[in-house]
Amino acid sequence: MNLAATGMAAAVAIAVLTALLAVVVRTRTSVVGVGTALTGVAAVVAGAAALAGGSFSVVLPGVLPLSGVSLTLDPLGGLFVAVTGGVAVAAGIYSMSYADTPDLRARGVRVALPLFVVAMVLVPAAANVGTLLVCWELMALTSLVLVVAEHRRGPQVASAGRWYAVMTHLGFVSVLIGLMLFVAHTGDDSFAAMREAGRHLSPAVAGVVFVATLVGFASKAGIVPLHAWLPRAHPEAPSHVSALMSAAMVNLGVYGLVRVGVDLLGGGAAWWWLLVLALGAVSAVYGILQAAMSSDLKRLLGQSTTENMGLVLIGVGAAGLFASSGDRALAALALTAALVHVVGHAAFKTVLFLAAGSVLHATGSRDLDALGGLRPVMPVTTAAFGVGALAASALPPGTAFVSEWLLLQALIHGLPAGGVAAAIAMPVAVAAVALTAGLAVATFVKAFGVGFLAKPRSEAVAGAHESPFTMLAAMGIAAVVCVVLALWPAGILPAVQAAAGGVAVSGDVTLRLNQATGALSPLLLTLGLVAAVAVVAAVMRAAVARRVRREARLWDCGGGPMSARMEYTATSFAEPLQRVFDDVVQPELDVDVSHHEESRYLVQAVEYRRKVPDRIERRLYQPVLSVITAWGRAGRGLAPGSVHRYLGYGFYAVCGVLLLLAVTR
Amino acid sequence: MYVQLLDLACGALLLTAVLVLWRRELTVIIRMFALQGAALAVLVGVLAAQENSAELWAVAVGVFALRAVVLPYLLRRALAGAGESRRETRPLVNVSASLLAAAVLTLLAYAVSQPLVELAPSAATQAIPVGITVVLIGFFVLVTRRRALSQLVGFLLMDNGITAVGFLATTGVGLVVELGVSLDVLLAVLVLQVLTTRMRETFGDTDLDELRELRD
After folding, report:
1. The CA-based dihedral angle spanning residues A562, A563, A568, A572, taken in that order and rounded to the nearest 10 degrees
2. Closest Cα to residue A146, out of A99, A98, A109, A115?
3. Does the beta carbon of A514 lie under 8 angstroms from any beta carbon of chain B?
4. What is the Cα A204 distance to its own chain's centre?
5. A654 in contact with B at a CB cutoff of 8 Å?
6. Which of left, alpha, beta for A273 (phi over 0: left; psi -120 to 50: alpha)?
7. Cβ <8 Å between A655 and B105
8. Number of neighbouring beta carbons within 10 Å of residue B55
9. Minimal C-alpha gap between B135 and chain A (Å)
10. Where does the chain cross the membrane (chain B) (predicted)?
11. Cβ of residue A548 closer than 8 Å to a chain B Cβ
12. A661: chain B residues, CB-CB within 8 Å
């Protein structure tokens, strides 16, 4: 029993024990938090051991009927197990005080938390279809319980839960269909046998399998046409659960795609990967555009998850495309970029959601237009959110910069590699990544600047207080990981290479490409930046010291001291962007101007309302929903309430079946 | 002798079921149901004599006690509180059409049970269609009669039919199973009796079609 196996066994044992403790003896909330965090630690150990080469395999035929449980931890799975574990550590510690509310102290919610974590840890370790699907479903169910944990807060929580339940189960059905079709052609549901047979599937069957599983996995990852649940469920879930879902669970969609598409089906045709690339590009741009318009802090973060998963899918799609045209080294580079982005996104999204939860905890509001002025009262949370926002916004000393830069390198160098399709797709993808990066900067400047700086915009914010120690510690851990990933990405590169190399995309990955523009050290870059800032500050100080200083109020047009109402709000900050992308987002504007009685020229009040509805959702989901509603309404005609009618249905059905039997025998 | 007695009992079963459809007086319907219970008990008794099994004799006595004495008594008590509404005045399907339907159902039962009979042809199994007919007629009563009490009789008719098929096909399904089923039926009747009384107290009537507003 090596380290990876020990870690996995420990993770499962601790999680199950914690769940049992929560259900049998009503333990304190902190015990559940510690248990979850320890589960995470064990998962990190297991994942790291697997990445270092210590993979393991175990078959427990008696546990599940028909297929049995079969677990294997290879480097690719190990990466996702480690990432999930890392997020679980922070979320577990955070929940020790965050989850100490009446709603979150409910028994079912406490049991679901460790089980959710262990289900997410087991999904990447599953080595046959049965195990994968059971763990996938366990993950969906436990997360659903957690999403609706605070259902007393309002009907929107139940609505979010319904959306999530329906979408996740439709996705599950799609994955089920794809994998069952696959297994029907291989005859064995273990991944090893499928890997052998996957190479010899006919292109048509392989294509159907790929598209069916892609639909399911993309819906879990929140990729665009199937993203509708994500901006609903992630904001309404308790914040540590949002962090787990947004930083760990969505990754498993990417895992599934890589596992089935690259590993089991062995690459496949170029059109698969062009499809993935296109979905990724659309998700990235659309997700961040929606986030830029959003003024709900957690919704903004959820929409940014769609964007980041889109970027990851661009990487995966490019990797598949390069691999199908035979360029192994570039494929490995693109896949590495995607996986580095998965790790980085997990780190900064954890920080951001935990910090948003801390704000929610202190002020009771997630509305950016009502926040502001949090820096003096919540310094640690502000610092953590600042680190997260910097990490998310693809600028040099940030985590996302590393992976997006790698991704851009792969895409740019891929230009001469493929055929006509690549020649068209690559520049478009580069443009999409660049646009996404720019909009991400604007989005996170808005979130941080409007949400945390300036003056408080409401009473609740003015009375805010810093969160308890455990919540700060959890944010601190995640923020430190973010900084480490940003400054020393080479530290995780061997691990990611092992994961990327483990899935049949062989070839050495180095950061240094042939051209001079290819080499860049984030650490040196950051040091240079810090030095430049220091020099500028020193020069400024020296210049200022020479003059006589005079304190004065800011120029305010003679309108008295500046009040919070004169500040930029999230809505007004996003207004220029909204104007630029008017045709895409199609916002609904409503301006009400009321005048004084005495004079029509004097304005009494101006009321401005803006709503940015999800256009794709309205075009795609509304028709389907209205058809289903109409169907249901038609079905009500069958149920007029008469007992005799209902009995009659049964009677005629029985007689019909008997008649059929008598006739067909 | 055995075959004739068996056929006689089965004939009585079928005849009483059809009579339940024919008559509208609830008191007569209950009497027919009691007769059917007795016929069922005779059927089991005949089988017991043929098999020479003490256990089956015990079951026969039990069936008689429950279906010919206790259940009719309970139904009559429920009826006693009913006051003037003692007739099934407006069935959803009128009596002559009901009798025609019973004939069709009998044909259907015979057509359907042929494979069952062919599995092991004997005097007992050849009577299986009668049991199935009783089940279908019971269901038909459930669908077409308005009074709660006739519904109850329909339900019990179905149960009689099922029991008859059970005995004819397997010569007894075991004392424990029979005991369990009987207790179930007894409980169901007791509960339905209470519900009927409550319905009458609330609506002044036991016409089930008045209950349309209970959906959603």
Report:
1. -120
2. A109
3. no
4. 31
5. yes
6. alpha
7. yes
8. 13
9. 11
10. 6-22, 29-50, 56-75, 95-113, 119-142, 149-169, 175-195
11. no
12. 112
Name the helix (H) or strand (E) containing A53. Answer: none
Residue A423's pLDDT band (cuts 50, 70, 90): confident
Q: Using H for helix, E for strand and C for coil, what is the string for A462-517? A: HCCCCCCHHHHHHHHHHHHHHHHHHHCHHHCHHHHHHHHHCCCCCCCCCCCCCCHH
Chain A positions touching B109 (Cβ under 8 A) are 658
Chain B interface includes A659 (CB < 8 A): yes
Question: Do A643 and B92 count as a contact with CB atoms less than 8 A apart?
Answer: no
Which residue out of A633, A636, A642, A647 would a mutagenesis test of the B interface target, given it has the greatest number of B Cβ atoms within 10 Å?
A647
Domain boundaries, given as residue ranges, for chain A: 1-189+223-254, 269-510, 588-665
Distance from CA of A162 to the nearest CA of B (A): 20
d(CA A533, CA A334): 33
Amino acid at B111: A
CB contact under 8 A, A642 and B139: no
pLDDT at residue A27 above 70? no
Delimit the domains of chain B by residue range.
2-210
Compute the distance between CA of residue A117 and CA of residue A283 in angstroms, rounded to an integer: 26
Q: Which residue is listed with tokens 């577990």?
A: A92
Do the chains contact at A644 and B208, CB–CB below 8 Å?
Answer: yes
Place of tokens 């020229």: A601
Q: Residue B27 contacts by C-beta under 8 Å, 6 or more apart in sequence?
A: B76, B79, B86
8 Å CB contact of A644 and B213: no
Mean pLDDT of A252-257: 94
The shortest CB-CB distance from B209 to any of A642, A651, A662 is to: A642
Q: Which residues pair with A58 in a beta bridge?
A: A71
- Residue numbers of A between 523 and 542 with CB closer than 8 Å to B: none
What number is the ipTM of this complex? 0.87
Q: What is the interface size between A and B, counted as CB pairs within 8 Å?
A: 43
Chain segment A455-507, per-residue pLDDT in tens: 888 877 777 888 888 899 999 999 999 988 888 877 777 777 777 765 544 44
Chain A hits for B213, Cβ within 8 Å: 641
User: Are the beta carbons of A38 and A14 closer than 8 angstroms?
Assistant: yes
CA of A410: how far to CAs of A245, A276, A328, A490, A499, in Å?
Answer: 29, 16, 12, 17, 18
B170-213: per-residue pLDDT in tens? 766 667 777 888 888 888 888 888 887 787 777 776 666 666 66
Task: Please state the φ and ψ torsions of residue A392, each to the nearest 5 degrees.
Answer: -80, -15
Contact A248, A84 (CB under 8 A): yes
Q: Backbone phi, then psi, for A497, in 5-degree steps?
A: -60, -40
Report chain B residues whose CB lies below 8 A from the CB of A650: 139
Which residues are CB-contacts of B177 (< 8 A; sequence separation ≥ 6)? none
Q: Chain A partners of B143 at a C-beta cutoff of 8 Å?
A: 644, 647-648, 651
Q: Which of B143, B155, B196, B208 to mutate to test the interface with A (most CBs of A within 10 A)?
A: B143
Rounded mean pLDDT of A119-131?
Answer: 91
Q: What is the pLDDT of residues A280-311, one digit of tens each?
A: 999 999 999 999 988 899 999 999 999 999 99
Q: How far apart are CA A338 and CA A81, in angstroms?
A: 16
Residues lower than pLDDT 50 in chain B: none
